[in-house]
Amino acid sequence: MNTTPAAVSFLLPATSLWRREVIRFVRQRSRVIGALGTPVVFWLLIGSGLRDSFRSPTADGAQASMSFLEYSFPGTLVLIVLFTAIFSTISIIEDRREGFLQAVIAAPVRRTAIVLGKVLGSTTLAVAQALLFLMLAPLSGIPLTAGSVLALMGLLVIVAMGLSALGFLIAWPMDSTQGFHAIMNLFLMPMWLLSGAFFPASGASRWLAWVMAANPLTYAVAGVRHALYLGRENAATAPSPTVSIAVTIAFAAAMIFLAGRAAAAKG
Question: What is the DSSP letter of 230?
């Protein structure tokens, strides 16, 4: 297969940055523990504590017997992706402080290649860790099938790309990791909490339900839930699979576009 010089000049820096992100993450064990361990502990402790007191509503409004451990499993998968995106995109601030990012920007490299390399690296790590957590699905009462795993993998890639691009968009203009963590605590974590991962919109007040409906992460969590229950009735009410996938794809595309614009506008 013939590869044009333009394609090589774009793909080579992107793949190099992707490889660097993966190697850096694996070598820093604290990031692995933080991105995977924290959501797992959160899921086990909170899920087990509320296991007997939580009831998820069905589509017809009746109360279904679903433990919080099972209900919160899809949201924890998305939380792992979110945490990985946060830890991965912090490297942008570190690279700027160490001078590496300035060297990459000064090189004859397209800014979109930088965005692609960072986003793909974060996506690879996020999906890999989410799949490790997926092995605990039977403990929550969710039986896995080959079809559900494949559907989930495809959806997680889209979710991870969107959240990684969002993290890139936030981290790119910053020069302080403390500022990034402040944004995370103020914006990203509430975004996850109001996604239907922690409680269903049907049990929230009207204004909060509208906020959850406007939250793009709500549709990511709903899509993950539909993928896990592929071919079976989903006990928890959520946006339809078509709407969930469409909104998730649109969110990922918008974030990647905006990240590219931000990288092109400011070095």
Answer: T
Per the CB < 8 A criterion, the answer to whether 88 and 118 are in contact is yes
What are the tens digits of pLDDT across the range 88-129?
Answer: 788 788 777 777 777 777 776 777 888 888 889 889 988 988
User: Tens digits of per-residue pLDDT, 35-48?
Assistant: 666 777 777 776 66
Residue for token digits 């946006």? 239
99, exposed or middle or buried, with CB in 10 Å at 0-12, 13-18, 19+? Answer: exposed
The answer to whether residues 40 and 134 touch, using CB atoms and an 8 Å cutoff, is no
Q: How many domains does the chain have?
A: 1
Degrees (nearest 5) of the Cα angle 73, 221, 194? 100
CB within 8 Å of 208: residues ≥ 6 apart: 194, 201
Distance of CA 45 to the CA centre of its chain: 21
Backbone angles phi, psi at 232, to 5 degrees: -130, 160
Half-sphere exposure of 159 (CA within 13 A, CB side): 34
User: In terms of Cα–Cα distance, which of 75, 87, 107, 98 is closest to 34?
Assistant: 87
CB neighbours of 151 closer than 8 A, spacing ≥ 6? 227, 230
- Type and span of the H or E element at 177: helix 177-183
Taking CA atoms, 68 is separated from 29, 63, 65, 206, 226, in Å, by: 30, 13, 10, 22, 17
The token pair that represents 4 in the structure block: 């044009």
Range of the domain at 79: 5-265
